[in-house]
Specification:
Blueprint lengths: L9 E4 L7 H6 L4 E5 L4 H4 L2 H11 L3 E5 L8 H13 L4 E6 L1 H13 L26 E5 L11 E6 L4 E6 L7 E4 L9 H21 L5 H23 L4 H14 L13 H13 L3 H19 L1 H12 L9 H17 L16 H11 L15 H10 L2
Parallel strand pairs: 1-8, 2-3, 2-4, 4-5, 5-8
Antiparallel strand pairs: 6-7
Helix pairs in contact: 4-5, 6-7, 6-8, 6-10, 7-8, 9-10, 9-13, 10-11, 10-12, 10-14, 11-12, 13-14
The protein binds 5,6-dihydroxy-NADP and zinc ion.
Protein backbone atom coordinates (compact mmCIF):
# COMPACT_ATOMS: atom_id res chain seq x y z
CA UNK A 1 0.00 0.00 0.00
CA UNK A 2 1.04 3.60 -0.48
CA UNK A 3 1.77 5.08 2.91
CA UNK A 4 3.21 8.00 4.84
CA UNK A 5 5.36 7.50 7.90
CA UNK A 6 6.10 10.21 10.43
CA UNK A 7 6.84 9.46 14.05
CA UNK A 8 8.02 12.65 15.77
CA UNK A 9 8.73 11.13 19.19
CA UNK A 10 12.32 11.69 20.28
CA UNK A 11 13.47 8.35 21.68
CA UNK A 12 16.15 8.16 24.36
CA UNK A 13 16.84 4.49 25.03
CA UNK A 14 19.07 2.60 27.40
CA UNK A 15 19.91 1.52 30.92
CA UNK A 16 20.60 4.45 33.22
CA UNK A 17 18.88 7.09 31.08
CA UNK A 18 16.36 7.88 33.85
CA UNK A 19 19.01 10.16 35.37
CA UNK A 20 18.41 12.53 32.43
CA UNK A 21 14.74 13.10 33.19
CA UNK A 22 15.21 16.58 34.72
CA UNK A 23 17.30 17.85 31.84
CA UNK A 24 14.85 16.40 29.28
CA UNK A 25 11.68 17.73 30.90
CA UNK A 26 13.14 21.21 31.47
CA UNK A 27 13.29 21.67 27.68
CA UNK A 28 9.51 21.32 27.51
CA UNK A 29 8.12 22.98 30.62
CA UNK A 30 8.61 24.48 34.05
CA UNK A 31 5.88 22.65 35.96
CA UNK A 32 5.27 18.97 35.38
CA UNK A 33 2.28 16.83 36.22
CA UNK A 34 3.70 13.42 37.14
CA UNK A 35 1.12 10.73 36.43
CA UNK A 36 1.56 7.35 38.14
CA UNK A 37 -0.36 4.11 38.67
CA UNK A 38 -1.19 2.12 41.78
CA UNK A 39 2.09 2.69 43.58
CA UNK A 40 4.84 0.50 42.04
CA UNK A 41 6.99 3.53 41.20
CA UNK A 42 6.70 4.76 44.77
CA UNK A 43 7.61 1.38 46.25
CA UNK A 44 10.69 0.84 44.06
CA UNK A 45 12.11 4.36 44.41
CA UNK A 46 11.65 5.46 40.80
CA UNK A 47 9.26 8.27 41.71
CA UNK A 48 11.71 9.80 44.21
CA UNK A 49 14.53 9.63 41.66
CA UNK A 50 12.38 11.47 39.11
CA UNK A 51 11.36 14.18 41.57
CA UNK A 52 14.99 14.71 42.65
CA UNK A 53 16.18 15.02 39.06
CA UNK A 54 13.37 17.48 38.25
CA UNK A 55 14.24 19.55 41.29
CA UNK A 56 17.86 19.75 40.16
CA UNK A 57 16.63 21.03 36.80
CA UNK A 58 14.34 23.63 38.43
CA UNK A 59 11.16 21.91 37.28
CA UNK A 60 8.38 22.02 39.88
CA UNK A 61 5.92 19.19 40.30
CA UNK A 62 2.23 18.33 40.70
CA UNK A 63 0.99 14.77 40.97
CA UNK A 64 -1.84 12.56 39.75
CA UNK A 65 -1.48 9.09 41.22
CA UNK A 66 -3.78 6.08 41.15
CA UNK A 67 -4.24 5.42 37.43
CA UNK A 68 -5.73 1.94 37.35
CA UNK A 69 -4.95 -0.87 34.86
CA UNK A 70 -7.48 -0.42 32.03
CA UNK A 71 -7.45 3.31 32.83
CA UNK A 72 -10.80 4.95 33.39
CA UNK A 73 -12.22 8.09 31.92
CA UNK A 74 -13.03 9.31 35.43
CA UNK A 75 -9.29 9.22 36.20
CA UNK A 76 -8.53 11.09 32.98
CA UNK A 77 -11.01 13.81 33.97
CA UNK A 78 -9.43 14.05 37.42
CA UNK A 79 -5.89 14.31 36.03
CA UNK A 80 -6.80 16.99 33.49
CA UNK A 81 -8.37 19.01 36.27
CA UNK A 82 -5.23 18.76 38.39
CA UNK A 83 -3.12 19.86 35.41
CA UNK A 84 -5.35 22.91 34.95
CA UNK A 85 -5.59 23.81 38.64
CA UNK A 86 -1.84 23.50 39.07
CA UNK A 87 -1.00 25.34 35.82
CA UNK A 88 1.16 22.49 34.56
CA UNK A 89 2.85 22.91 31.19
CA UNK A 90 4.18 19.37 30.64
CA UNK A 91 3.02 15.86 31.60
CA UNK A 92 5.32 13.02 32.65
CA UNK A 93 3.76 9.57 32.28
CA UNK A 94 5.67 7.37 34.72
CA UNK A 95 4.27 3.85 34.52
CA UNK A 96 2.91 1.16 32.22
CA UNK A 97 0.64 1.51 29.22
CA UNK A 98 -2.30 2.44 31.41
CA UNK A 99 -0.48 5.43 32.89
CA UNK A 100 0.85 6.49 29.50
CA UNK A 101 -2.56 6.24 27.82
CA UNK A 102 -4.32 8.14 30.61
CA UNK A 103 -1.60 10.82 30.48
CA UNK A 104 -2.03 11.31 26.75
CA UNK A 105 -5.75 11.93 27.05
CA UNK A 106 -5.24 14.19 30.08
CA UNK A 107 -2.77 16.19 27.98
CA UNK A 108 -5.37 16.68 25.25
CA UNK A 109 -8.24 17.22 27.71
CA UNK A 110 -6.26 20.12 29.16
CA UNK A 111 -7.19 22.15 26.06
CA UNK A 112 -10.69 20.76 25.55
CA UNK A 113 -13.75 22.24 27.21
CA UNK A 114 -15.99 19.25 26.53
CA UNK A 115 -15.88 15.79 28.11
CA UNK A 116 -12.70 13.84 27.19
CA UNK A 117 -14.87 10.76 26.51
CA UNK A 118 -15.84 12.59 23.28
CA UNK A 119 -12.31 11.81 22.06
CA UNK A 120 -12.60 8.07 22.59
CA UNK A 121 -14.05 6.40 19.55
CA UNK A 122 -17.05 4.41 20.74
CA UNK A 123 -19.31 4.43 17.73
CA UNK A 124 -20.42 8.08 18.01
CA UNK A 125 -20.97 9.77 14.62
CA UNK A 126 -18.64 12.70 15.30
CA UNK A 127 -15.76 11.75 17.58
CA UNK A 128 -13.68 14.73 18.65
CA UNK A 129 -10.13 14.29 17.34
CA UNK A 130 -7.86 16.44 19.51
CA UNK A 131 -5.42 18.78 17.79
CA UNK A 132 -3.65 20.21 20.84
CA UNK A 133 -2.13 18.59 23.89
CA UNK A 134 0.35 19.48 26.58
CA UNK A 135 3.82 18.09 25.81
CA UNK A 136 3.97 14.47 26.95
CA UNK A 137 7.14 12.78 28.21
CA UNK A 138 6.73 9.02 28.56
CA UNK A 139 8.85 7.02 30.98
CA UNK A 140 7.65 3.42 30.64
CA UNK A 141 8.15 1.04 33.56
CA UNK A 142 6.72 -2.00 31.77
CA UNK A 143 7.50 -3.32 28.28
CA UNK A 144 4.26 -4.13 26.47
CA UNK A 145 2.09 -1.60 24.71
CA UNK A 146 4.54 0.61 22.82
CA UNK A 147 2.41 3.54 23.96
CA UNK A 148 5.64 5.41 24.81
CA UNK A 149 6.27 6.03 21.11
CA UNK A 150 2.90 6.00 19.41
CA UNK A 151 -0.12 8.24 19.04
CA UNK A 152 -2.74 5.93 20.51
CA UNK A 153 -4.45 5.70 23.87
CA UNK A 154 -7.01 3.20 25.14
CA UNK A 155 -9.48 4.29 27.82
CA UNK A 156 -12.34 2.52 29.61
CA UNK A 157 -15.72 3.84 30.61
CA UNK A 158 -16.80 1.89 33.65
CA UNK A 159 -20.37 3.17 33.49
CA UNK A 160 -21.13 2.25 29.88
CA UNK A 161 -18.84 -0.84 29.89
CA UNK A 162 -16.92 0.40 26.89
CA UNK A 163 -13.19 0.37 26.24
CA UNK A 164 -11.84 1.98 23.13
CA UNK A 165 -9.16 4.16 21.60
CA UNK A 166 -8.21 7.58 20.34
CA UNK A 167 -5.48 8.24 17.82
CA UNK A 168 -4.25 11.75 17.08
CA UNK A 169 -0.99 13.35 15.94
CA UNK A 170 -0.90 15.60 19.02
CA UNK A 171 -0.74 12.51 21.24
CA UNK A 172 2.71 11.48 20.06
CA UNK A 173 4.93 11.95 23.10
CA UNK A 174 7.56 14.65 22.64
CA UNK A 175 10.11 12.37 24.26
CA UNK A 176 10.12 8.72 25.22
CA UNK A 177 12.74 8.25 27.91
CA UNK A 178 13.12 4.49 28.02
CA UNK A 179 15.28 2.96 30.72
CA UNK A 180 14.96 -0.85 30.74
CA UNK A 181 16.27 -0.96 34.33
CA UNK A 182 12.87 0.36 35.40
CA UNK A 183 11.22 -2.83 34.17
CA UNK A 184 13.31 -5.13 36.38
CA UNK A 185 10.69 -4.99 39.16
CA UNK A 186 7.83 -6.09 36.88
CA UNK A 187 6.45 -9.41 38.19
CA UNK A 188 6.61 -12.56 36.10
CA UNK A 189 2.96 -12.55 35.02
CA UNK A 190 2.99 -8.95 33.79
CA UNK A 191 6.30 -9.59 32.02
CA UNK A 192 4.72 -12.51 30.19
CA UNK A 193 1.64 -10.48 29.28
CA UNK A 194 3.92 -7.78 27.90
CA UNK A 195 5.63 -10.33 25.66
CA UNK A 196 2.24 -11.57 24.47
CA UNK A 197 0.99 -8.02 23.84
CA UNK A 198 3.98 -6.99 21.76
CA UNK A 199 3.86 -10.18 19.68
CA UNK A 200 0.14 -9.65 19.07
CA UNK A 201 0.76 -6.08 17.87
CA UNK A 202 2.95 -7.58 15.19
CA UNK A 203 0.77 -10.55 14.30
CA UNK A 204 -2.25 -8.30 13.73
CA UNK A 205 -0.46 -6.50 10.88
CA UNK A 206 1.24 -9.65 9.64
CA UNK A 207 -1.95 -11.66 9.23
CA UNK A 208 -4.48 -8.94 8.44
CA UNK A 209 -2.38 -6.87 6.07
CA UNK A 210 -2.22 -6.83 2.30
CA UNK A 211 -0.07 -9.26 0.28
CA UNK A 212 3.34 -8.34 -1.07
CA UNK A 213 5.01 -6.87 2.02
CA UNK A 214 8.25 -8.90 2.21
CA UNK A 215 10.24 -6.37 4.24
CA UNK A 216 7.42 -5.83 6.74
CA UNK A 217 7.05 -9.61 7.04
CA UNK A 218 10.72 -9.98 7.90
CA UNK A 219 10.56 -7.11 10.39
CA UNK A 220 7.55 -8.73 12.04
CA UNK A 221 9.20 -12.14 12.15
CA UNK A 222 12.33 -10.53 13.66
CA UNK A 223 10.27 -8.96 16.43
CA UNK A 224 8.41 -12.22 17.12
CA UNK A 225 11.57 -14.35 17.18
CA UNK A 226 13.36 -11.82 19.39
CA UNK A 227 10.46 -11.71 21.83
CA UNK A 228 10.25 -15.52 21.89
CA UNK A 229 13.99 -15.79 22.55
CA UNK A 230 14.42 -13.05 25.16
CA UNK A 231 10.96 -12.96 26.73
CA UNK A 232 11.37 -16.28 28.59
CA UNK A 233 14.77 -15.09 29.88
CA UNK A 234 13.23 -11.90 31.28
CA UNK A 235 10.48 -13.98 32.89
CA UNK A 236 12.95 -16.50 34.36
CA UNK A 237 15.19 -13.80 35.83
CA UNK A 238 13.67 -10.34 36.19
CA UNK A 239 17.11 -8.88 36.92
CA UNK A 240 18.50 -10.00 33.55
CA UNK A 241 19.06 -6.52 32.20
CA UNK A 242 20.00 -7.68 28.73
CA UNK A 243 16.76 -9.66 28.42
CA UNK A 244 14.75 -6.73 29.80
CA UNK A 245 16.44 -4.45 27.25
CA UNK A 246 15.73 -6.68 24.25
CA UNK A 247 12.09 -7.13 25.24
CA UNK A 248 11.63 -3.41 25.77
CA UNK A 249 13.08 -2.51 22.40
CA UNK A 250 10.92 -5.18 20.75
CA UNK A 251 7.82 -3.73 22.40
CA UNK A 252 8.58 -0.25 21.06
CA UNK A 253 9.35 -1.37 17.53
CA UNK A 254 6.22 -3.53 17.48
CA UNK A 255 3.83 -0.59 17.68
CA UNK A 256 5.60 2.62 16.73
CA UNK A 257 4.25 2.41 13.20
CA UNK A 258 7.35 1.04 11.52
CA UNK A 259 6.67 -2.71 11.32
CA UNK A 260 3.09 -2.34 10.13
CA UNK A 261 3.75 0.57 7.74
CA UNK A 262 1.99 -0.01 4.43
CA UNK A 263 0.35 -3.26 5.49
CA UNK A 264 -3.04 -1.71 6.18
CA UNK A 265 -4.00 -4.43 8.64
CA UNK A 266 -6.98 -4.28 10.97
CA UNK A 267 -6.76 -5.16 14.67
CA UNK A 268 -9.61 -7.66 15.11
CA UNK A 269 -8.01 -9.52 18.03
CA UNK A 270 -7.45 -6.25 19.89
CA UNK A 271 -10.95 -5.00 19.19
CA UNK A 272 -12.55 -8.17 20.55
CA UNK A 273 -10.24 -8.13 23.59
CA UNK A 274 -11.07 -4.53 24.41
CA UNK A 275 -14.73 -5.48 24.68
CA UNK A 276 -13.90 -8.35 27.02
CA UNK A 277 -11.76 -6.18 29.28
CA UNK A 278 -14.47 -3.50 29.32
CA UNK A 279 -16.85 -6.03 30.88
CA UNK A 280 -14.44 -8.06 32.98
CA UNK A 281 -11.49 -5.73 33.76
CA UNK A 282 -9.01 -8.45 32.79
CA UNK A 283 -5.38 -7.76 31.90
CA UNK A 284 -5.27 -6.74 28.23
CA UNK A 285 -2.75 -9.33 27.06
CA UNK A 286 -4.28 -12.14 29.11
CA UNK A 287 -7.32 -11.61 26.88
CA UNK A 288 -5.15 -11.45 23.76
CA UNK A 289 -3.45 -14.75 24.63
CA UNK A 290 -6.85 -16.43 24.66
CA UNK A 291 -8.33 -14.81 21.56
CA UNK A 292 -5.35 -14.66 19.22
CA UNK A 293 -4.81 -18.42 18.67
CA UNK A 294 -8.56 -18.93 18.29
CA UNK A 295 -8.76 -16.09 15.76
CA UNK A 296 -5.70 -17.48 13.93
CA UNK A 297 -7.39 -20.86 13.44
CA UNK A 298 -10.45 -19.11 12.01
CA UNK A 299 -8.36 -16.90 9.68
CA UNK A 300 -6.03 -19.72 8.58
CA UNK A 301 -9.00 -21.54 7.18
CA UNK A 302 -9.65 -18.57 4.88
CA UNK A 303 -6.06 -17.76 3.97
CA UNK A 304 -3.63 -20.55 4.90
CA UNK A 305 -0.64 -19.15 2.96
CA UNK A 306 0.41 -16.54 5.50
CA UNK A 307 -0.03 -18.99 8.37
CA UNK A 308 2.11 -21.53 6.52
CA UNK A 309 4.80 -18.87 6.17
CA UNK A 310 4.48 -18.18 9.93
CA UNK A 311 4.79 -21.91 10.75
CA UNK A 312 7.85 -22.31 8.57
CA UNK A 313 9.70 -19.14 9.48
CA UNK A 314 8.88 -18.93 13.18
CA UNK A 315 8.80 -22.60 14.13
CA UNK A 316 10.88 -24.18 11.36
CA UNK A 317 8.07 -26.49 10.22
CA UNK A 318 8.11 -27.88 6.68
CA UNK A 319 4.97 -27.46 4.58
CA UNK A 320 4.04 -29.49 1.52
CA UNK A 321 3.04 -26.22 -0.19
CA UNK A 322 1.62 -22.75 0.50
CA UNK A 323 -1.88 -24.16 1.11
CA UNK A 324 -0.84 -26.83 3.62
CA UNK A 325 -3.51 -26.14 6.26
CA UNK A 326 -2.19 -28.89 8.56
CA UNK A 327 1.18 -27.16 8.72
CA UNK A 328 -0.53 -23.79 9.30
CA UNK A 329 -2.51 -25.25 12.20
CA UNK A 330 0.58 -26.89 13.69
CA UNK A 331 2.27 -23.47 13.69
CA UNK A 332 -0.68 -22.00 15.56
CA UNK A 333 -0.59 -24.89 18.07
CA UNK A 334 3.11 -24.20 18.67
CA UNK A 335 2.38 -20.51 19.16
CA UNK A 336 -0.36 -21.28 21.65
CA UNK A 337 1.98 -23.66 23.47
CA UNK A 338 4.57 -20.88 23.69
CA UNK A 339 2.02 -18.55 25.28
CA UNK A 340 0.96 -21.26 27.73
CA UNK A 341 4.61 -22.03 28.48
CA UNK A 342 5.34 -18.46 29.57
CA UNK A 343 2.30 -18.49 31.84
CA UNK A 344 -0.45 -16.86 29.79
CA UNK A 345 -4.00 -18.19 29.93
CA UNK A 346 -5.26 -19.73 26.69
CA UNK A 347 -8.93 -20.38 27.55
CA UNK A 348 -11.69 -17.94 28.46
CA UNK A 349 -12.59 -20.16 31.40
CA UNK A 350 -9.20 -19.33 32.96
CA UNK A 351 -10.38 -15.69 32.94
CA UNK A 352 -13.71 -16.77 34.47
CA UNK A 353 -15.58 -15.81 31.32
CA UNK A 354 -18.34 -18.14 30.13
CA UNK A 355 -20.67 -18.14 27.13
CA UNK A 356 -23.61 -16.27 28.65
CA UNK A 357 -22.73 -12.89 27.11
CA UNK A 358 -20.91 -13.93 23.97
CA UNK A 359 -23.46 -12.40 21.61
CA UNK A 360 -23.25 -9.12 23.53
CA UNK A 361 -19.44 -9.08 23.21
CA UNK A 362 -19.72 -9.56 19.45
CA UNK A 363 -22.39 -6.89 19.07
CA UNK A 364 -20.54 -4.37 21.22
CA UNK A 365 -17.31 -4.91 19.31
CA UNK A 366 -19.10 -4.28 16.02
CA UNK A 367 -20.89 -1.24 17.40
CA UNK A 368 -17.54 0.36 18.18
CA UNK A 369 -15.79 -0.52 14.96
CA UNK A 370 -17.01 -1.90 11.65
CA UNK A 371 -16.35 -1.52 7.96
CA UNK A 372 -18.96 -0.28 5.47
CA UNK A 373 -20.62 -3.69 5.48
CA UNK A 374 -21.06 -3.96 9.23
CA UNK A 375 -18.13 -6.37 9.69
CA UNK A 376 -15.09 -6.14 11.93
CA UNK A 377 -12.15 -4.98 9.75
CA UNK A 378 -9.49 -7.62 9.23
CA UNK A 379 -8.61 -10.36 6.85
CA UNK A 380 -11.14 -11.80 6.46
CA UNK A 381 -13.62 -9.21 7.77
CA UNK A 382 -15.60 -10.79 10.63
CA UNK A 383 -19.35 -11.01 10.90
CA UNK A 384 -21.11 -11.18 14.25
CA UNK A 385 -21.36 -14.96 13.77
CA UNK A 386 -17.60 -15.19 13.10
CA UNK A 387 -16.78 -13.31 16.31
CA UNK A 388 -19.11 -15.55 18.29
CA UNK A 389 -17.48 -18.65 16.75
CA UNK A 390 -13.98 -17.44 17.63
CA UNK A 391 -15.03 -16.74 21.22
CA UNK A 392 -16.85 -20.08 21.55
CA UNK A 393 -13.76 -21.89 20.29
CA UNK A 394 -11.79 -20.17 23.07
CA UNK A 395 -14.11 -21.16 25.93
O1 LIG B 1 -0.17 0.62 38.71
P1 LIG B 1 1.19 0.19 39.20
O2 LIG B 1 1.30 0.14 40.68
O3 LIG B 1 2.29 0.96 38.56
O4 LIG B 1 1.34 -1.37 38.78
C1 LIG B 1 1.27 -1.80 37.43
C2 LIG B 1 -0.04 -2.54 37.12
O5 LIG B 1 -0.54 -3.18 38.25
C3 LIG B 1 2.31 -2.86 37.23
N1 LIG B 1 3.63 -2.30 36.93
C4 LIG B 1 3.97 -1.43 35.94
N2 LIG B 1 5.29 -1.18 35.98
C5 LIG B 1 5.79 -1.89 37.03
C6 LIG B 1 4.73 -2.59 37.64
N3 LIG B 1 4.91 -3.39 38.73
C7 LIG B 1 6.15 -3.48 39.22
N4 LIG B 1 7.22 -2.85 38.67
C8 LIG B 1 7.09 -2.05 37.58
N5 LIG B 1 8.17 -1.46 37.03
O6 LIG B 1 1.83 -3.60 36.13
C9 LIG B 1 0.41 -3.62 36.15
C10 LIG B 1 -0.13 -3.40 34.76
O7 LIG B 1 0.18 -2.10 34.31
P2 LIG B 1 -0.51 -1.53 32.98
O8 LIG B 1 0.03 -0.17 32.74
O9 LIG B 1 -1.99 -1.68 33.07
O10 LIG B 1 0.02 -2.57 31.87
P3 LIG B 1 0.32 -2.40 30.33
O11 LIG B 1 1.59 -1.65 30.11
O12 LIG B 1 0.24 -3.75 29.78
O13 LIG B 1 -0.86 -1.47 29.77
C11 LIG B 1 -2.12 -2.01 29.49
C12 LIG B 1 -3.07 -0.96 28.96
O14 LIG B 1 -2.61 -0.42 27.71
C13 LIG B 1 -3.64 -0.58 26.71
C14 LIG B 1 -4.36 -1.80 27.18
O15 LIG B 1 -5.62 -1.94 26.58
C15 LIG B 1 -4.45 -1.56 28.68
O16 LIG B 1 -5.47 -0.66 28.99
N6 LIG B 1 -3.03 -0.62 25.37
C16 LIG B 1 -2.51 0.51 24.88
C17 LIG B 1 -1.97 0.58 23.61
C18 LIG B 1 -1.40 1.83 23.05
N7 LIG B 1 -1.56 2.96 23.71
O17 LIG B 1 -0.80 1.84 22.00
C19 LIG B 1 -1.96 -0.57 22.72
C20 LIG B 1 -2.21 -1.86 23.41
O18 LIG B 1 -2.65 -2.79 22.47
C21 LIG B 1 -3.19 -1.80 24.54
O19 LIG B 1 -4.53 -1.86 24.09
ZN1 LIG C 1 -2.12 -4.68 22.75
Amino acid sequence: MNFEFHNPTHLIFGAGTLSRIGEVVSKHGKKALIVTGGGSVKRNGTFDRVVASLKNANVSVAECSGVEPNPRITTVRRGAQIARNEHCDVIIALGGGSVMDASKVMAAAFYYDGDPWDMIYHGQPDPYIPTHALPIITVPTLAATGSEMNMGAVISNEESKEKSFVQAECLYPRVALVDPELTMSVPKDQTAYGVCDLITHVTEGYFNGVDGTPIQDRFAEGVILTAMEWGPKAIADGNDLEARTQVQWASIVALNGWVNAGTNGGYPVHMIEHTLSAYHDITHAAGLAVINPSWMRFAADHRPQKFVQFAERIFGLKATGPHDLDCALQGIDRFEAFLKGIGCPTRLSELHIDDTMITRYAQDTLRIIHDGNGNLPGRPPMTEANIIAVLKAAL
